Amino acid sequence: MQIHAPRTVNLTESIGHANASVSAHSVRQQAGWNNLPGLSRTNLSSLRFCRATKVSGIGQSRRVAQLRSKTVAYAGNDKISKLRDKLEAIAKELEAADRESFLSSVAAERAAELAALPIKETTKAAKTQDTAQHKAESHGKLKSKDRKPKKQMKPQVNELEEAEKRPKLFEPAAGPPPKIGEEELQAEGSGHEILLQGFNWESWKQGWYHKLMDQADEFADLGITCIWLPPPTDSVSPQGYMPGDLYNLNSKYGSQEDLKRCVAKLQSKGLKVLCDIVINHRCAQKQDKNGIWNVFGGKMAWDAEAIVVNDRKFKGRGNRATGDEFAAAPNIDHMQDYVRKDLTDWMEWLRDDIGFDGWRFDFVRGYGGQFVREYVLATEPHYVVGEYWDSLDYDGSVPRINQDRHRQQTVDWITAAGGAATAFDVTTKGILHAVFEKDELNRLRDGEGRPPGVMGWWPSRATTFLENHDTGSTQGHWRFPEEGYEQGLVYLMTHPGTPCLFYDDLLEPKKKAMIQKLVALRQKAGINCRSKVNIKHAQKFLYVAEIDGSLLMKIGKAKYEPDSQQWKVLESGKNWGIWQNA
After folding, report:
1. How many other β-carbons are positioned within 10 Å of the β-carbon of residue 5?
2. Does 325 participate in catalysis according to the annotation?
3. Given the residues 325, 333, 362, 425, the one annotated as active site
4. Which residue in 95, 245, 325, 387 is the catalytic one?
5. Span 495-509, pLDDT tens digits
6. How confident is the model over 216-266, as pLDDT tens digits?
Protein backbone atom coordinates (compact mmCIF):
# COMPACT_ATOMS: atom_id res chain seq x y z
CA MET A 1 0.00 0.00 0.00
CA GLN A 2 1.38 3.39 -0.95
CA ILE A 3 1.50 5.78 2.00
CA HIS A 4 1.35 9.54 1.60
CA ALA A 5 2.32 11.94 4.35
CA PRO A 6 1.14 13.60 6.38
CA ARG A 7 -2.56 12.73 6.63
CA THR A 8 -2.82 9.23 5.30
CA VAL A 9 0.41 7.92 6.74
CA ASN A 10 -0.19 4.76 8.72
CA LEU A 11 3.12 3.08 9.23
CA THR A 12 1.53 -0.01 10.72
CA GLU A 13 0.47 -0.83 7.17
CA SER A 14 3.91 -0.87 5.62
CA ILE A 15 6.82 -0.15 7.96
CA GLY A 16 9.78 -2.32 7.25
CA HIS A 17 8.20 -4.37 4.48
CA ALA A 18 6.38 -2.29 1.87
CA ASN A 19 7.31 -2.69 -1.77
CA ALA A 20 9.89 -5.40 -1.07
CA SER A 21 11.59 -6.67 -4.20
CA VAL A 22 10.24 -10.22 -4.19
CA SER A 23 8.52 -12.08 -7.01
CA ALA A 24 5.03 -13.40 -6.35
CA HIS A 25 6.22 -16.83 -7.44
CA SER A 26 9.05 -17.00 -4.89
CA VAL A 27 6.80 -15.74 -2.14
CA ARG A 28 4.13 -18.32 -2.88
CA GLN A 29 6.76 -21.01 -2.92
CA GLN A 30 8.45 -19.99 0.32
CA ALA A 31 5.72 -18.43 2.39
CA GLY A 32 2.45 -19.51 0.81
CA TRP A 33 1.06 -16.05 0.01
CA ASN A 34 -1.70 -16.04 -2.55
CA ASN A 35 -1.14 -12.47 -3.68
CA LEU A 36 1.76 -10.06 -3.56
CA PRO A 37 1.06 -6.63 -5.03
CA GLY A 38 3.55 -5.40 -2.37
CA LEU A 39 4.40 -6.47 1.14
CA SER A 40 2.02 -4.73 3.49
CA ARG A 41 0.81 -4.62 7.06
CA THR A 42 -2.75 -4.50 8.22
CA ASN A 43 -4.38 -1.71 10.17
CA LEU A 44 -6.54 -4.00 12.19
CA SER A 45 -6.11 -7.25 14.04
CA SER A 46 -8.66 -9.52 12.34
CA LEU A 47 -11.10 -11.07 14.76
CA ARG A 48 -11.15 -14.77 13.91
CA PHE A 49 -11.49 -18.17 15.53
CA CYS A 50 -10.24 -21.65 14.76
CA ARG A 51 -12.51 -23.91 12.73
CA ALA A 52 -13.38 -27.21 14.38
CA THR A 53 -12.42 -30.28 12.37
CA LYS A 54 -13.05 -32.97 15.00
CA VAL A 55 -15.97 -32.68 17.37
CA SER A 56 -17.78 -35.16 19.58
CA GLY A 57 -21.05 -35.07 17.66
CA ILE A 58 -19.67 -35.04 14.16
CA GLY A 59 -21.19 -38.43 13.32
CA GLN A 60 -24.66 -37.15 14.17
CA SER A 61 -24.13 -34.03 12.09
CA ARG A 62 -23.06 -36.07 9.08
CA ARG A 63 -26.07 -38.39 9.42
CA VAL A 64 -28.43 -35.43 9.49
CA ALA A 65 -26.68 -33.98 6.45
CA GLN A 66 -27.15 -37.25 4.57
CA LEU A 67 -30.86 -37.36 5.39
CA ARG A 68 -31.18 -33.72 4.41
CA SER A 69 -29.66 -34.40 0.98
CA LYS A 70 -32.07 -37.26 0.34
CA THR A 71 -35.11 -35.04 0.84
CA VAL A 72 -34.09 -32.75 -2.00
CA ALA A 73 -35.49 -35.18 -4.58
CA TYR A 74 -38.93 -34.97 -2.93
CA ALA A 75 -39.08 -31.22 -2.61
CA GLY A 76 -42.50 -31.13 -4.24
CA ASN A 77 -44.08 -33.20 -1.47
CA ASP A 78 -45.39 -31.00 1.39
CA LYS A 79 -44.69 -33.60 4.07
CA ILE A 80 -41.19 -34.19 2.83
CA SER A 81 -40.66 -30.45 2.58
CA LYS A 82 -41.65 -30.00 6.23
CA LEU A 83 -39.40 -32.89 7.23
CA ARG A 84 -36.54 -31.26 5.36
CA ASP A 85 -37.08 -27.98 7.28
CA LYS A 86 -36.99 -29.86 10.59
CA LEU A 87 -33.79 -31.61 9.58
CA GLU A 88 -32.25 -28.25 8.64
CA ALA A 89 -33.02 -26.90 12.13
CA ILE A 90 -31.71 -30.06 13.84
CA ALA A 91 -28.51 -29.91 11.76
CA LYS A 92 -27.85 -26.31 12.78
CA GLU A 93 -28.38 -27.12 16.45
CA LEU A 94 -26.00 -30.09 16.26
CA GLU A 95 -23.35 -28.07 14.43
CA ALA A 96 -23.57 -25.32 17.05
CA ALA A 97 -23.37 -27.86 19.88
CA ASP A 98 -20.40 -29.56 18.23
CA ARG A 99 -18.58 -26.27 17.86
CA GLU A 100 -19.26 -25.23 21.45
CA SER A 101 -17.97 -28.60 22.67
CA PHE A 102 -14.80 -28.22 20.67
CA LEU A 103 -14.19 -24.64 21.76
CA SER A 104 -14.78 -25.49 25.40
CA SER A 105 -12.21 -28.28 25.26
CA VAL A 106 -9.66 -26.01 23.58
CA ALA A 107 -10.29 -23.21 26.08
CA ALA A 108 -9.76 -25.60 28.98
CA GLU A 109 -6.57 -26.91 27.44
CA ARG A 110 -5.19 -23.41 26.82
CA ALA A 111 -6.13 -22.25 30.31
CA ALA A 112 -4.22 -25.20 31.78
CA GLU A 113 -1.19 -24.32 29.66
CA LEU A 114 -1.30 -20.71 30.85
CA ALA A 115 -1.56 -21.74 34.50
CA ALA A 116 1.59 -23.81 34.11
CA LEU A 117 3.44 -21.03 32.29
CA PRO A 118 6.55 -20.03 34.28
CA ILE A 119 7.30 -16.36 34.72
CA LYS A 120 11.00 -15.92 34.25
CA GLU A 121 12.56 -13.50 36.68
CA THR A 122 15.98 -12.03 36.25
CA THR A 123 18.63 -13.17 38.70
CA LYS A 124 21.01 -10.49 37.60
CA ALA A 125 18.94 -7.42 36.84
CA ALA A 126 21.25 -4.47 36.56
CA LYS A 127 19.74 -1.41 38.17
CA THR A 128 20.51 2.07 36.91
CA GLN A 129 22.51 4.25 39.26
CA ASP A 130 19.96 6.99 39.04
CA THR A 131 16.77 4.93 39.41
CA ALA A 132 15.63 7.03 42.34
CA GLN A 133 16.26 10.18 40.36
CA HIS A 134 14.27 8.82 37.42
CA LYS A 135 11.37 7.77 39.61
CA ALA A 136 11.17 11.29 41.00
CA GLU A 137 11.43 12.60 37.46
CA SER A 138 8.99 10.26 35.73
CA HIS A 139 6.82 8.27 38.12
CA GLY A 140 4.21 10.92 38.66
CA LYS A 141 4.16 12.28 35.15
CA LEU A 142 1.13 10.40 33.96
CA LYS A 143 -1.51 11.17 36.52
CA SER A 144 -4.86 9.50 36.18
CA LYS A 145 -6.47 12.69 35.02
CA ASP A 146 -3.91 12.97 32.21
CA ARG A 147 -4.36 9.47 30.91
CA LYS A 148 -6.54 9.36 27.84
CA PRO A 149 -8.60 6.25 27.22
CA LYS A 150 -7.30 4.35 24.26
CA LYS A 151 -9.28 4.72 21.07
CA GLN A 152 -9.76 1.32 19.54
CA MET A 153 -9.58 1.10 15.77
CA LYS A 154 -13.10 0.38 14.58
CA PRO A 155 -13.41 -2.78 12.50
CA GLN A 156 -15.94 -3.18 9.74
CA VAL A 157 -19.47 -3.75 11.00
CA ASN A 158 -19.71 -7.32 9.75
CA GLU A 159 -16.39 -8.23 11.41
CA LEU A 160 -17.50 -6.71 14.68
CA GLU A 161 -20.83 -8.50 14.65
CA GLU A 162 -19.16 -11.80 13.91
CA ALA A 163 -16.57 -11.27 16.62
CA GLU A 164 -19.23 -10.65 19.25
CA LYS A 165 -20.77 -14.04 18.47
CA ARG A 166 -17.53 -15.97 18.78
CA PRO A 167 -16.42 -17.43 22.09
CA LYS A 168 -12.88 -16.56 23.17
CA LEU A 169 -10.55 -19.54 22.99
CA PHE A 170 -7.96 -18.10 25.33
CA GLU A 171 -7.47 -15.13 27.61
CA PRO A 172 -4.08 -14.21 29.11
CA ALA A 173 -4.07 -13.99 32.89
CA ALA A 174 -4.54 -10.45 34.17
CA GLY A 175 -1.78 -8.94 36.27
CA PRO A 176 -0.69 -5.50 37.40
CA PRO A 177 1.73 -3.98 34.88
CA PRO A 178 4.96 -2.39 36.14
CA LYS A 179 4.57 1.24 37.16
CA ILE A 180 6.03 3.87 34.92
CA GLY A 181 9.53 4.59 36.07
CA GLU A 182 10.38 1.04 37.15
CA GLU A 183 13.34 -0.01 35.02
CA GLU A 184 14.40 -3.62 35.37
CA LEU A 185 17.42 -3.21 33.14
CA GLN A 186 19.61 -0.36 31.91
CA ALA A 187 18.16 -0.50 28.41
CA GLU A 188 19.53 2.94 27.49
CA GLY A 189 23.19 1.89 27.57
CA SER A 190 25.45 4.54 29.07
CA GLY A 191 22.76 7.20 28.75
CA HIS A 192 25.08 9.17 26.45
CA GLU A 193 24.66 6.99 23.35
CA ILE A 194 24.58 8.31 19.78
CA LEU A 195 22.84 5.65 17.68
CA LEU A 196 23.24 5.23 13.92
CA GLN A 197 20.96 3.17 11.71
CA GLY A 198 23.71 1.61 9.62
CA PHE A 199 21.78 0.74 6.46
CA ASN A 200 18.98 1.84 4.12
CA TRP A 201 16.36 0.01 2.06
CA GLU A 202 18.80 -0.78 -0.77
CA SER A 203 21.83 -1.85 1.30
CA TRP A 204 21.28 -5.55 0.52
CA LYS A 205 22.53 -4.92 -3.03
CA GLN A 206 25.99 -3.75 -2.02
CA GLY A 207 27.94 -6.38 -0.05
CA TRP A 208 26.97 -4.43 3.01
CA TYR A 209 29.06 -5.98 5.78
CA HIS A 210 32.26 -5.25 3.86
CA LYS A 211 31.14 -1.67 3.24
CA LEU A 212 30.48 -1.09 6.95
CA MET A 213 33.89 -2.52 7.87
CA ASP A 214 35.49 0.03 5.53
CA GLN A 215 33.58 2.84 7.27
CA ALA A 216 34.25 1.83 10.88
CA ASP A 217 36.84 4.60 11.41
CA GLU A 218 34.50 7.16 9.88
CA PHE A 219 31.68 6.24 12.27
CA ALA A 220 33.99 6.44 15.28
CA ASP A 221 35.33 9.84 14.17
CA LEU A 222 31.75 11.14 13.95
CA GLY A 223 31.18 10.25 17.60
CA ILE A 224 28.79 7.35 16.93
CA THR A 225 28.64 4.98 19.91
CA CYS A 226 26.05 2.39 18.74
CA ILE A 227 25.27 1.11 15.26
CA TRP A 228 22.11 -0.79 14.31
CA LEU A 229 22.63 -3.44 11.63
CA PRO A 230 19.91 -4.90 9.34
CA PRO A 231 18.20 -8.25 10.04
CA PRO A 232 20.93 -10.88 9.54
CA THR A 233 18.77 -13.92 8.79
CA ASP A 234 18.15 -15.39 5.36
CA SER A 235 14.80 -13.97 4.27
CA VAL A 236 12.10 -14.21 1.62
CA SER A 237 12.47 -10.45 1.14
CA PRO A 238 16.06 -9.35 0.52
CA GLN A 239 15.89 -6.60 3.14
CA GLY A 240 15.60 -9.27 5.84
CA TYR A 241 12.16 -8.58 7.28
CA MET A 242 10.59 -11.88 6.18
CA PRO A 243 12.88 -14.39 7.96
CA GLY A 244 12.76 -18.15 7.57
CA ASP A 245 15.46 -20.28 9.25
CA LEU A 246 16.66 -17.92 11.98
CA TYR A 247 19.98 -19.71 12.39
CA ASN A 248 20.87 -19.23 8.71
CA LEU A 249 22.84 -15.96 8.72
CA ASN A 250 23.88 -16.12 5.08
CA SER A 251 21.80 -13.25 3.75
CA LYS A 252 21.88 -10.69 0.95
CA TYR A 253 24.03 -8.49 3.19
CA GLY A 254 26.80 -11.10 3.33
CA SER A 255 27.78 -14.43 4.87
CA GLN A 256 27.76 -15.36 8.54
CA GLU A 257 31.56 -15.07 8.62
CA ASP A 258 31.34 -11.63 6.98
CA LEU A 259 28.87 -10.61 9.69
CA LYS A 260 31.12 -11.80 12.52
CA ARG A 261 34.10 -9.91 11.08
CA CYS A 262 31.95 -6.79 10.61
CA VAL A 263 30.73 -6.87 14.22
CA ALA A 264 34.28 -7.38 15.50
CA LYS A 265 35.66 -4.54 13.36
CA LEU A 266 33.02 -2.06 14.52
CA GLN A 267 33.56 -3.06 18.14
CA SER A 268 37.32 -2.60 17.76
CA LYS A 269 36.58 1.09 17.09
CA GLY A 270 34.56 1.41 20.28
CA LEU A 271 31.06 0.97 18.81
CA LYS A 272 28.32 -1.21 20.27
CA VAL A 273 26.47 -3.23 17.63
CA LEU A 274 22.69 -3.82 17.63
CA CYS A 275 20.93 -6.64 15.77
CA ASP A 276 17.54 -6.12 14.11
CA ILE A 277 15.36 -8.83 15.71
CA VAL A 278 12.35 -9.89 13.60
CA ILE A 279 10.34 -12.34 15.71
CA ASN A 280 6.74 -11.23 15.26
CA HIS A 281 6.42 -13.49 12.22
CA ARG A 282 8.36 -16.16 10.38
CA CYS A 283 8.09 -17.65 6.89
CA ALA A 284 7.60 -21.41 6.73
CA GLN A 285 9.84 -23.70 4.70
CA LYS A 286 7.30 -26.45 3.96
CA GLN A 287 3.59 -27.05 3.41
CA ASP A 288 1.47 -29.22 5.66
CA LYS A 289 -0.67 -32.09 4.33
CA ASN A 290 -3.35 -29.55 3.35
CA GLY A 291 -0.96 -27.41 1.32
CA ILE A 292 -0.67 -24.65 3.94
CA TRP A 293 2.76 -23.07 4.41
CA ASN A 294 3.06 -23.53 8.17
CA VAL A 295 5.83 -26.10 8.65
CA PHE A 296 9.12 -24.55 9.71
CA GLY A 297 12.56 -26.00 9.06
CA GLY A 298 16.02 -25.63 10.53
CA LYS A 299 16.89 -25.81 14.20
CA MET A 300 13.50 -24.32 15.16
CA ALA A 301 11.37 -27.02 13.53
CA TRP A 302 7.95 -25.67 14.48
CA ASP A 303 4.51 -26.36 13.02
CA ALA A 304 1.07 -24.73 13.20
CA GLU A 305 1.12 -24.94 17.02
CA ALA A 306 3.69 -22.12 16.94
CA ILE A 307 1.29 -19.87 15.01
CA VAL A 308 -1.40 -17.86 16.80
CA VAL A 309 -4.91 -19.22 16.42
CA ASN A 310 -6.10 -15.85 15.06
CA ASP A 311 -3.95 -16.44 11.97
CA ARG A 312 -6.59 -18.19 9.90
CA LYS A 313 -4.66 -17.77 6.65
CA PHE A 314 -1.87 -20.04 7.91
CA LYS A 315 -4.20 -22.24 10.03
CA GLY A 316 -2.55 -21.45 13.36
CA ARG A 317 -3.31 -23.82 16.24
CA GLY A 318 -1.60 -21.91 19.04
CA ASN A 319 -2.94 -19.37 21.52
CA ARG A 320 -4.75 -16.16 20.73
CA ALA A 321 -2.54 -13.31 19.53
CA THR A 322 -1.28 -10.81 22.11
CA GLY A 323 -0.92 -8.02 19.53
CA ASP A 324 -1.84 -6.86 16.05
CA GLU A 325 -1.79 -9.16 13.04
CA PHE A 326 0.87 -9.12 10.33
CA ALA A 327 -0.93 -10.46 7.27
CA ALA A 328 1.93 -11.48 5.00
CA ALA A 329 3.50 -14.30 7.05
CA PRO A 330 2.66 -16.69 9.92
CA ASN A 331 2.37 -14.82 13.22
CA ILE A 332 4.47 -16.44 15.95
CA ASP A 333 2.78 -17.54 19.18
CA HIS A 334 4.99 -16.22 21.99
CA MET A 335 2.70 -17.82 24.59
CA GLN A 336 4.23 -21.21 23.80
CA ASP A 337 7.01 -22.19 26.24
CA TYR A 338 9.12 -23.91 23.60
CA VAL A 339 8.83 -20.94 21.22
CA ARG A 340 10.13 -18.52 23.85
CA LYS A 341 12.92 -20.91 24.83
CA ASP A 342 13.98 -21.35 21.19
CA LEU A 343 13.98 -17.58 20.61
CA THR A 344 15.91 -16.92 23.82
CA ASP A 345 18.51 -19.55 22.88
CA TRP A 346 18.83 -17.97 19.43
CA MET A 347 19.35 -14.48 20.83
CA GLU A 348 21.92 -15.76 23.31
CA TRP A 349 23.72 -17.36 20.36
CA LEU A 350 23.64 -14.05 18.48
CA ARG A 351 25.16 -12.40 21.54
CA ASP A 352 27.78 -15.03 22.41
CA ASP A 353 28.79 -16.42 19.01
CA ILE A 354 28.20 -13.53 16.61
CA GLY A 355 29.01 -10.82 19.15
CA PHE A 356 25.96 -8.51 19.12
CA ASP A 357 25.67 -6.03 22.01
CA GLY A 358 21.98 -5.13 21.80
CA TRP A 359 18.66 -5.42 20.03
CA ARG A 360 16.27 -3.46 17.86
CA PHE A 361 12.90 -5.28 17.95
CA ASP A 362 10.85 -5.07 14.75
CA PHE A 363 7.04 -4.59 14.74
CA VAL A 364 6.51 -4.94 18.49
CA ARG A 365 2.82 -4.15 18.06
CA GLY A 366 2.41 -7.75 16.99
CA TYR A 367 3.12 -9.39 20.36
CA GLY A 368 2.97 -8.44 24.03
CA GLY A 369 5.64 -6.31 25.64
CA GLN A 370 5.97 -8.88 28.43
CA PHE A 371 7.75 -11.18 25.98
CA VAL A 372 10.26 -8.51 25.02
CA ARG A 373 10.90 -8.10 28.74
CA GLU A 374 11.64 -11.82 29.07
CA TYR A 375 14.01 -11.88 26.09
CA VAL A 376 15.82 -8.77 27.30
CA LEU A 377 16.24 -9.94 30.88
CA ALA A 378 17.60 -13.28 29.62
CA THR A 379 20.16 -11.71 27.27
CA GLU A 380 21.08 -8.50 29.19
CA PRO A 381 21.90 -6.32 26.16
CA HIS A 382 23.65 -2.95 26.25
CA TYR A 383 20.90 -1.10 24.38
CA VAL A 384 17.35 -2.06 23.38
CA VAL A 385 14.80 -0.25 21.21
CA GLY A 386 11.38 -1.38 20.01
CA GLU A 387 9.58 -0.30 16.83
CA TYR A 388 6.09 0.68 17.97
CA TRP A 389 4.31 2.51 15.14
CA ASP A 390 0.89 4.08 15.00
CA SER A 391 -0.73 6.93 13.11
CA LEU A 392 -0.99 10.29 14.86
CA ASP A 393 -4.36 11.84 15.70
CA TYR A 394 -5.80 14.22 13.10
CA ASP A 395 -8.53 16.80 12.72
CA GLY A 396 -9.28 16.40 9.05
CA SER A 397 -5.88 16.62 7.36
CA VAL A 398 -4.19 18.50 10.21
CA PRO A 399 -2.41 16.71 13.09
CA ARG A 400 -3.88 17.62 16.44
CA ILE A 401 -1.71 19.66 18.77
CA ASN A 402 -2.41 17.28 21.63
CA GLN A 403 -0.90 13.87 20.83
CA ASP A 404 -1.14 12.43 24.35
CA ARG A 405 -3.11 9.40 23.17
CA HIS A 406 -0.42 8.59 20.65
CA ARG A 407 2.51 8.79 23.04
CA GLN A 408 0.51 7.02 25.75
CA GLN A 409 0.37 3.92 23.54
CA THR A 410 4.16 3.88 23.26
CA VAL A 411 4.60 4.45 26.99
CA ASP A 412 2.14 1.62 27.69
CA TRP A 413 4.26 -0.73 25.57
CA ILE A 414 7.46 0.29 27.38
CA THR A 415 5.67 -0.23 30.69
CA ALA A 416 4.49 -3.70 29.59
CA ALA A 417 8.13 -4.48 28.77
CA GLY A 418 9.05 -3.61 32.36
CA GLY A 419 10.97 -0.53 31.27
CA ALA A 420 13.56 -2.96 29.88
CA ALA A 421 13.49 -1.33 26.42
CA THR A 422 13.41 2.08 24.83
CA ALA A 423 11.02 2.82 21.94
CA PHE A 424 11.28 4.96 18.85
CA ASP A 425 9.65 8.30 19.62
CA VAL A 426 7.31 8.39 16.63
CA THR A 427 5.22 11.04 18.42
CA THR A 428 8.10 13.52 18.41
CA LYS A 429 8.85 12.84 14.73
CA GLY A 430 5.21 13.45 13.78
CA ILE A 431 4.99 16.66 15.80
CA LEU A 432 8.21 17.96 14.22
CA HIS A 433 6.69 17.33 10.77
CA ALA A 434 3.75 19.57 11.67
CA VAL A 435 6.04 22.15 13.27
CA PHE A 436 8.07 22.73 10.09
CA GLU A 437 5.34 22.14 7.55
CA LYS A 438 3.05 24.67 9.22
CA ASP A 439 5.49 26.98 11.06
CA GLU A 440 3.84 26.15 14.38
CA LEU A 441 6.61 25.85 16.95
CA ASN A 442 4.03 26.29 19.70
CA ARG A 443 3.39 22.55 19.22
CA LEU A 444 6.71 21.82 20.97
CA ARG A 445 5.33 22.40 24.48
CA ASP A 446 2.55 20.29 25.98
CA GLY A 447 -0.09 21.47 28.46
CA GLU A 448 2.26 20.94 31.39
CA GLY A 449 5.24 22.75 29.92
CA ARG A 450 7.16 19.65 28.79
CA PRO A 451 8.23 18.33 25.38
CA PRO A 452 5.14 16.80 23.70
CA GLY A 453 6.60 13.43 22.67
CA VAL A 454 7.64 10.34 24.59
CA MET A 455 10.75 12.29 25.63
CA GLY A 456 8.49 14.56 27.68
CA TRP A 457 7.07 11.69 29.74
CA TRP A 458 9.84 9.10 29.88
CA PRO A 459 12.99 10.62 28.35
CA SER A 460 15.39 7.77 29.14
CA ARG A 461 13.13 5.41 27.19
CA ALA A 462 12.75 7.62 24.10
CA THR A 463 14.87 6.88 21.03
CA THR A 464 14.39 9.97 18.88
CA PHE A 465 14.88 10.19 15.12
CA LEU A 466 14.05 12.21 12.01
CA GLU A 467 14.35 9.54 9.31
CA ASN A 468 14.84 5.81 8.79
CA HIS A 469 14.78 3.14 6.06
CA ASP A 470 10.97 3.23 5.87
CA THR A 471 10.19 6.91 6.16
CA GLY A 472 13.08 7.95 3.92
CA SER A 473 15.49 6.01 1.67
CA THR A 474 13.92 4.76 -1.59
CA GLN A 475 10.61 4.01 0.14
CA GLY A 476 9.94 7.58 1.26
CA HIS A 477 6.75 6.83 3.17
CA TRP A 478 7.06 9.80 5.53
CA ARG A 479 10.02 11.98 4.58
CA PHE A 480 11.08 14.62 7.05
CA PRO A 481 10.55 18.17 5.69
CA GLU A 482 13.83 19.13 4.05
CA GLU A 483 13.49 22.78 5.02
CA GLY A 484 13.30 21.80 8.68
CA TYR A 485 16.15 19.26 8.73
CA GLU A 486 18.79 21.42 10.44
CA GLN A 487 16.38 22.76 13.05
CA GLY A 488 14.96 19.28 13.66
CA LEU A 489 18.47 17.91 14.17
CA VAL A 490 19.31 20.76 16.56
CA TYR A 491 16.18 19.92 18.55
CA LEU A 492 17.03 16.21 18.87
CA MET A 493 20.73 16.70 19.59
CA THR A 494 20.12 19.22 22.39
CA HIS A 495 17.22 17.40 24.05
CA PRO A 496 16.94 14.27 26.23
CA GLY A 497 16.29 10.83 24.84
CA THR A 498 18.77 8.95 22.67
CA PRO A 499 19.13 10.36 19.13
CA CYS A 500 19.21 7.87 16.25
CA LEU A 501 20.82 9.15 13.05
CA PHE A 502 20.18 7.72 9.58
CA TYR A 503 22.88 6.33 7.28
CA ASP A 504 21.67 8.23 4.18
CA ASP A 505 22.26 11.57 5.89
CA LEU A 506 25.98 10.77 6.05
CA LEU A 507 26.03 10.60 2.25
CA GLU A 508 25.26 14.33 1.94
CA PRO A 509 28.33 16.44 2.87
CA LYS A 510 26.32 19.33 4.31
CA LYS A 511 24.21 17.07 6.53
CA LYS A 512 27.23 15.04 7.56
CA ALA A 513 29.10 18.19 8.64
CA MET A 514 26.04 19.31 10.62
CA ILE A 515 25.82 15.92 12.33
CA GLN A 516 29.49 15.92 13.27
CA LYS A 517 29.22 19.43 14.70
CA LEU A 518 26.15 18.68 16.82
CA VAL A 519 27.34 15.28 18.03
CA ALA A 520 30.54 16.90 19.30
CA LEU A 521 28.54 19.69 20.96
CA ARG A 522 26.17 17.24 22.66
CA GLN A 523 28.99 15.12 23.98
CA LYS A 524 31.02 18.10 25.21
CA ALA A 525 27.98 19.56 26.98
CA GLY A 526 27.24 16.20 28.62
CA ILE A 527 23.65 16.07 27.34
CA ASN A 528 22.19 12.62 28.02
CA CYS A 529 18.96 10.69 27.83
CA ARG A 530 17.81 12.13 31.18
CA SER A 531 18.80 15.76 30.70
CA LYS A 532 16.41 18.39 32.07
CA VAL A 533 14.51 20.70 29.72
CA ASN A 534 13.21 24.12 30.73
CA ILE A 535 11.12 25.49 27.85
CA LYS A 536 11.41 29.30 27.81
CA HIS A 537 9.35 30.08 24.71
CA ALA A 538 7.06 28.01 22.49
CA GLN A 539 5.42 30.42 20.06
CA LYS A 540 4.39 30.11 16.44
CA PHE A 541 7.77 31.21 15.05
CA LEU A 542 10.02 30.69 18.07
CA TYR A 543 11.08 27.88 20.37
CA VAL A 544 13.69 28.40 23.09
CA ALA A 545 14.74 25.86 25.72
CA GLU A 546 17.39 25.66 28.42
CA ILE A 547 19.03 22.26 28.85
CA ASP A 548 20.49 21.20 32.21
CA GLY A 549 20.89 24.86 33.12
CA SER A 550 24.07 25.07 31.04
CA LEU A 551 22.91 25.19 27.42
CA LEU A 552 20.41 27.39 25.59
CA MET A 553 18.99 26.55 22.16
CA LYS A 554 16.69 28.34 19.75
CA ILE A 555 14.89 27.30 16.55
CA GLY A 556 12.34 29.20 14.46
CA LYS A 557 12.16 32.20 12.12
CA ALA A 558 11.75 34.79 14.86
CA LYS A 559 14.88 36.58 16.01
CA TYR A 560 16.18 35.79 19.48
CA GLU A 561 19.23 37.05 21.33
CA PRO A 562 19.83 36.00 24.96
CA ASP A 563 21.71 38.09 27.51
CA SER A 564 25.27 38.19 26.16
CA GLN A 565 26.60 38.54 29.69
CA GLN A 566 25.13 35.16 30.62
CA TRP A 567 25.21 33.21 27.35
CA LYS A 568 28.09 32.67 24.91
CA VAL A 569 27.41 31.58 21.30
CA LEU A 570 28.56 28.04 20.50
CA GLU A 571 26.99 27.33 17.12
CA SER A 572 24.42 28.97 14.86
CA GLY A 573 22.80 28.59 11.45
CA LYS A 574 19.71 29.56 9.52
CA ASN A 575 16.86 29.92 12.04
CA TRP A 576 18.78 28.20 14.86
CA GLY A 577 21.36 28.95 17.53
CA ILE A 578 23.02 27.31 20.54
CA TRP A 579 24.58 29.14 23.50
CA GLN A 580 26.62 28.04 26.50
CA ASN A 581 26.26 29.44 29.99
CA ALA A 582 29.11 31.88 30.48
Report:
1. 17
2. no
3. 362
4. 387
5. 999 999 999 999 999
6. 999 999 999 999 999 999 999 999 999 999 999 999 999 999 999 999 999
